[in-house]
Amino acid sequence: MKRIFPLILSLLLVLSLFGCKNAPLKNSKDQPPDIPTAFTADLYIINGEREYEAKYDQTSLTEAQLEFTSPATVRGLKVKLSGSTCTFSYGNLTFSADLSSLPQSGVGELITKTLKTSSDTANTQTVHTGDAWETKGTVSGVDFTLRRGDNGLPQSLEIPKALLTAEFRNVSPK
Question: What are the distances in angstroms from CA 115 to CA 73, 88, 103, 139, 143?
């Protein structure tokens, strides 16, 4: 009897370990939260030596609009990305073009593509660092680092080869 009880106890312990191993991880620090597909944010952008501020409104993974608020030379310029089409509007002027016909990726396209690419776990690497998640990957042939909070909302984006840094402020999911 003395030998059977420890044997049964050991067997139950081993079986309980196997049962716990297959349990899904919900809200775990081992799994990054999804980035909301629709959100708004104030952006502070550094592109090379230029600094910009813009309102960012993402309605899906392939649709977003930036409305520049600073500096005064671009205030009121709107850039709308919808699938493969980019529309620029300023006052009463509007110009639309297929993204493939533009000579290089613009700031808005890089930001939107990066947010979409960061959810592709097969082509990105995500690690938890302190109070945020860092995702590293490649978009439009350049490496990026996206930092987002434990709630999934983006905080900052760096694309060194494109000389682009963006801070997401006042982020609000829709």
Answer: 27, 21, 22, 10, 13
Give the count of beta carbons closer than 10 Å to the beta carbon of residue 5. Answer: 9
Alpha helix stretches (DSSP H) within the chain: 4-21, 107-117
Q: Tens place of pLDDT for every residue, the chain, 174 residues?
A: 454 433 343 433 333 334 443 333 344 557 788 889 999 999 999 999 999 999 999 999 889 999 999 999 999 999 999 988 999 999 999 999 998 887 666 778 888 888 888 877 778 899 998 889 999 999 888 999 999 998 899 999 999 998 999 999 999 999
- For 45, other C-beta atoms within 10 Å of its C-beta total 21
Nearest CA-CA partner of 139 in 94, 103, 97, 108: 108
* Pick from 62, 61, 66, 141: nearest CA to 105: 141
